[in-house]
Specification:
Layout lengths: L16 E5 L4 H13 L5 E4 L8 H6 L4 H6 L1 E3 L2 H4 L5 E5 L9 E3 L1 H13 L4 E5 L8 H5 L3 E3 L12 H17 L16 H17 L8 H13 L5 H28 L7
Parallel strand pairs: 1-2, 1-6, 2-3, 4-6, 4-7, 5-7
Helix pairs in contact: 1-7, 5-7, 8-10
């Protein structure tokens, strides 16, 4: 929960209804609710949950998405759960041989946005953990939504499927802007500032006889390249220079202390 900021109020607006058909485990319901909350989905409907409802296991695994779990509605069958829905998508990983359009999550969510704009309501159906949705349930939907996954291992956990769909909904409805930026807050260092640092570096490396005489020019060029390849900022140069100064001062203090402690020639 390190990324959760409860001081922020997010107005999600309309979003697809998540319908879980005969979910077997309360834990999966809770994790699906958490995935919904990640992407601003708020309405969950349950069709005949195997272990009944409410479920403490669902509440425990929702990781704070209790507003979704506690408000979840329970229905006896899919027809009842879709009573007020104008556009419904069925999720499945298997080809069903039905005369249905097959859409990617991106395509489905684009249609969802358009349906909301026209005043409709949208639902996405997710099937049982073991067997998914049956063909009769899929026949009640307008289209199939499926994910581009490894065909040799295509089955998704309910919460995973809800997460992927929720991500595409959020991206389509709210844009792709990232929640924070990593912009460089210090301006790029002027070349004179960088050159002064390189002179300082070169002088100190000469002091400790770092350069082999025949390789000094090429090694110094390489050092300049190392630093300039990453577009040094003013803060970078100040930090590097400060770090070098600390190392140099420590070395000089150690050298001075060593001289003070060395015996005089006539005492040896």
């Amino acid at each position: 929960m390190s990324g959760t900021n409860r001081s922020i109020t997010f107005e999600s607006g309309q979003g697809p209804i998540v319908v879980l058909v005969e979910p077997q485990l309360g834990e999966n319901i809770g994790m699906a609710a958490r995935a919904m909350a990640n992407f601003g989905l708020t309405e969950m409907r349950l069709v005949a949950p195997r272990d009944g409802w409410p479920s403490e296991k669902a509440r425990a695994t929702s990781s704070g998405a209790l507003h979704i779990v506690d408000a979840a509605q329970v229905f006896d069958d899919v027809t009842a759960a879709l009573h007020d829905v104008t556009l419904a998508f069925a999720t499945t990983a298997r080809e069903r041989g039905q005369m249905k359009r097959v859409l990617s999550p991106q395509e489905s969510m684009r249609e969802a946005v358009a349906e909301f704009s026209a005043g409709g309501r949208v639902a996405i159906l997710f099937g049982r953990e073991r067997s998914g949705l049956d063909n009769d349930e899929i026949s009640l939907c307008d289209a199939i939504t499926t994910f581009p996954v490894n065909p040799a291992f295509a089955s998704l956990n309910i919460a995973q499927a809800v997460l992927l769909t929720g991500y595409e909904w959020f991206r389509t409805a709210h844009g792709e802007a990232l929640p924070f930026e990593g912009e460089i807050r210090s301006p790029r260092a002027p070349r004179a500032m960088a050159a002064s640092f390189f002179d300082y570096l070169e002088e100190e490396l000469d002091r400790v006889e770092f350069f082999p005489p025949d390789k000094r020019p090429s090694m110094m060029r390489n050092l300049r390249d190392v630093f300039l390849r990453r577009d040094l900022t003013e803060q970078d140069v100040r930090t590097l220079r400060g770090a070098m100064r600390a190392l140099i001062l420590r070395r000089r203090r150690d050298e001075a202390q060593g001289r003070d402690e060395a015996p005089a020639p006539d005492e040896a």
